[in-house]
Write a structure and sequence with these properties.
The protein is elongated, with a radius of gyration of 52 Å. The longest helix has 51 residues. It is built from 3 helices and 24 strands. The protein is of the alpha+beta class. The chain folds into 3 domains: 185 residues, Immunoglobulin-like (Sandwich); 116 residues, Immunoglobulins (Immunoglobulin-like); 80 residues. It comes from Micromonospora costi.
Length: 424
């Protein structure tokens, strides 16, 4: 039967989220002892057995007279210095508890949480500088033990902040769904914040900047610019801060920026990932995103000198597909209107040319008829109204003159004939 090491997270003393450790053990580091931790009762087998009462305990900074209200073990020491302090471990359950007491190093999770090394990992920082007079405690029900410990800073300790925690752990054995025996360790602790004197160097750096632009189907609305990056504390003191995301288009067009949510505490050497979003970003084909983070002290003090603000830039494509589709449709409509207008103009021009040709043909026919002595087909209105002469009188038209000449010729013909008869 194999034993598996798993994590069982203790409940917070002040309700902060439990810290997550590597597979072996887990600790909940809380700033104050107002809420004790509770471990569920376990049974070594799946057979029916009386249920043991739940185990509940808490850990808090203390003095010789008991807990003194401190939120954490906070110290400022020179290299090589040492001090003695006490931790209060309280059993709130109705049965005795046997707990393991030790210290460990802290680190920042990628989500920005405060966590301790797994129980099986040896500390190398402030957790290794703590020595307890007792490491195994058997505490009667509803009782408290104030355990002294000594913190000794090595002479070669680096200046700046060192974080860790004091842990009280309860080991238990239970069975999993397959019936295998599983070793479970419930941990509850209190934080240690140590500042070693010397030059402090606050610094935050931005790494692994990734940016993407998500367009909108509405051509009159902008898209969403999403930037994801890692913030690393490259200095030697605990820092917080607020990241900023800026955006510019080609030639500095549509420049704007947005502030993200404030950062949680980042321990020296720690890092966390954050995401900043900017809405209403116009797709200007090529966008340049700039991420920046201004470090601030977690205790609210002013950093002097003011640390430099680290920035990171990334360029991305933001093709305005909906706008291009809209422009294409508008261009097609304009082209169709232009083609229809030109076609109508050509039809009108052909109709005018045909009318002119028809008029010329009709005029030629009338002229040929007039030359051959045939009366031209003239509208009745035209025959009824003779043309006016230069003096304002009525000028007979050519047809009337021709008829007049013909009549005169016929009138003279008989005279000629009679003259001929007389001569004979």
């Amino acid at each position: 039967m194999r034993l598996l090491a798993v994590i069982a997270i203790g409940i917070a003393l002040l309700g902060l989220p439990p810290i997550v450790a590597a597979p072996a053990a887990s600790a909940s580091i809380r700033p104050a002892p107002s809420m004790p931790a509770t471990a569920p009762a376990t049974s070594p087998s799946r057979s029916a057995a009386p249920t043991a009462p739940a185990a509940t305990w808490g850990v808090a900074p203390s003095s010789a007279k008991g807990p003194n209200g401190r939120a954490a073990f906070t110290y400022k020491l020179d290299p090589g210095a040492s001090l003695t302090d006490r931790v209060a471990v309280t059993n709130h359950s109705t049965r005795p508890l046997t707990l393991s007491l030790y210290a460990s190093d802290a680190f920042t999770t990628t989500q920005g949480g405060f966590d301790l090394l797994a129980g099986g990992q040896q500390p190398t920082d402030v957790g290794a500088w703590v020595r307890f007079t007792r490491t195994t405690l058997t505490i009667p029900s509803t009782s408290r033990l104030d355990v002294p410990f000594t913190l000794t800073v090595p002479a070669n300790a680096t200046p700046g902040d060192h974080a860790g925690g004091v842990v009280a752990a309860l080991a238990a054995t239970t069975a999993d769904a397959q019936g295998n025996q599983v070793s479970v360790e419930h941990r509850v602790g209190a934080r240690i914040y140590l500042r070693v004197t010397g030059e402090v160097q606050p610094a935050l750096s931005i790494e692994d900047l990734r940016v993407r632009h998500t367009g909108s189907l509405n051509p009159f609305a902008g898209g969403t610019l999403t930037a994801t990056f890692t913030l690393r504390n490259t200095g030697n003191m605990r820092l917080a801060g607020r990241p900023t995301l800026g955006m510019t288009g080609p030639f500095g067009l549509a420049r704007r920026s947005v502030d993200a949510a404030a950062l949680p505490e980042i321990l020296p050497g720690g890092e966390l990932s954050t995401t900043v979003r900017m809405t209403g970003v116009p797709p200007l084909f090529r966008l340049t995103a700039t991420a920046a983070a201004t470090p601030t002290a977690v205790d609210g003090l002013t950093l002097d000198p003011v640390p430099a603000v680290d920035t990171a830039r990334a360029a991305i494509w933001a093709v305005p597909w909906p706008q291009l589709v809209l422009l294409t449709l508008l261009a097609l409509v304009a082209w169709a209107l232009l083609v229809a207008r030109r076609r109508r103009a050509r039809q009108i021009a052909r109709a005018v040319a045909a009318a002119r040709e028809e008029g010329r043909a009709q005029a030629g026919v009338e002229m040929r008829r007039a030359t051959d002595g045939q009366p031209a087909t003239v509208p009745a209105e035209t025959r009824a109204q003779p043309a006016a002469g230069p003096d304002g009188g009525i000028t007979p038209d050519r047809a009337e003159l021709d008829r007049g000449r013909s009549d005169q010729g016929r009138d003279r013909q008989p005279d000629t004939d009679r003259t001929g008869k007389d001569e004979q």
